[in-house]
Specification:
The chain is of the alpha/beta class. The protein has one domain: 3-Layer(aba) Sandwich (Rossmann fold). It contains 7 helices and 5 strands, in the order βααβααβααβαβ. α3 packs antiparallel against α4 and α5 crosses α6. It is globular.
Length: 152
C-alpha cells in the first residue's frame, strides 16, 4: 500500500514532540511506499523562505527542506493529475482549497492514500484518508477478526 504524506504529516516529523501515534505508524511503514508531492515540497520551502535569516532554527529548517527528496519519493502534478483535478473541481459543490486539491488529484490519479490530519477537504475529494494520530480500535471484522484501523 502506498501513502502520500500531506504537508501537516511531513511537518509532524519536525516537531520537538511529535504525536506518538503518528511516529509509531511512520516507523512501521516501508519507506519505499511513502511519498510526498511537489506541492508539499513547495509549501515547506515557502515556510522556510518566510523566515528571517536570524531565526534560531533557520539552518535546521533549510536542511529539513533540502533533505525531503532524499527521505521520500516525490510525486509530480502531471497530466493524469491535471485531468483528474479538472474533473474534481468542476464537480465540487463548493470551493476546494487549491493546494489540497492539487495534492488530492496527485493522490487519486495514482490510487494511493493520503496521510493527513486535515481530513475534510480530502474526504470531499474522495481520497482514501489515513489519520495515524488516532488510536486503532479492536472490533469484529469480516476480515477474520483483524484490528480495524480508523486511519485507513
Amino acid at each position: 500500500m502506498n501513502f502520500v504524506l500531506d504537508t501537516n504529516a511531513v511537518s509532524e516529523t519536525r516537531k520537538p514532540l511529535p504525536s506518538l501515534g503518528f511516529v509509531n505508524w511512520l516507523a512501521a511503514q516501508d519507506p519505499a511506499h511513502l511519498f510526498i508531492t511537489t506541492v508539499t515540497l513547495a509549501e515547506v520551502w515557502n515556510g522556510f523562505h518566510s523566515l528571517e535569516p536570524d531565526h534560531p532554527d533557520y539552518q535546521g529548517i533549510k536542511d529539513f527542506a533540502s533533505d525531503l527528496p532524499r527521505r521520500f519519493r516525490v510525486l509530480n502534478f502531471d497530466a493524469r493529475a491535471a485531468a483528474l483535478w479538472g474533473e474534481m473541481t468542476a464537480k465540487a459543490t463548493g470551493p476546494l482549497p487549491l493546494r489540497d486539491s492539487f495534492i488530492a488529484a496527485i493522490v487519486r490519479s495514482r490510487g494511493y492514500r493520503i496521510v493527513t490530519r486535515d481530513t475534510v477537504p480530502f474526504q470531499r475529494m474522495d481520497c482514501r484518508v489515513v489519520v495515524p494520530w488516532r488510536k486503532p480500535k479492536l472490533s469484529p471484522s469480516a476480515d477474520m477478526g483483524v484490528v480495524e484501523r480508523p486511519w485507513i
